[in-house]
Amino acid sequence: MVIVPVKDTPPGECPQCWQHAHDRRAHRHLGPRQDCPQCVDHLRNGHPYLVPKKRSSWW
Asked: pTM of the prediction?
C-alpha cells in the first residue's frame, strides 16, 4: 500500500518517515498499541531513500 505524501518532503528527510509522522491516514488501519509493519521495517533496515539536500553555495 503506497500513500502519496500530503506535504513535500523537506531535504534530508526520508519520504516514508515524513509521511508517517505528518499524515494520520498512514496509521489509521492499525489497532490500539499495534505496530506499523512499514515503520518496524524502517527501524530494522534503515531508510531506503532520503530526499537530497541542496549544495551549499556560500563558499
From this structure: 0.66
Q: How far apart are CA 34 and CA 55, in angstroms?
A: 40
Mean pLDDT of 9-24: 88
Q: At 45, which helix (H) or strand (E)?
A: helix 37-45
- Helix (H), strand (E) at residue 40: helix 37-45
C-alpha to C-alpha distance for 11 and 55, rounded to whole angstroms: 11
What span, in angstroms and rounded, lies between the C-alpha atoms of 44 and 36? 13
C-alpha 30: how far from chain center: 17
Question: Per the structure block, which three cell numbers stand in for 45?
Answer: 533496515
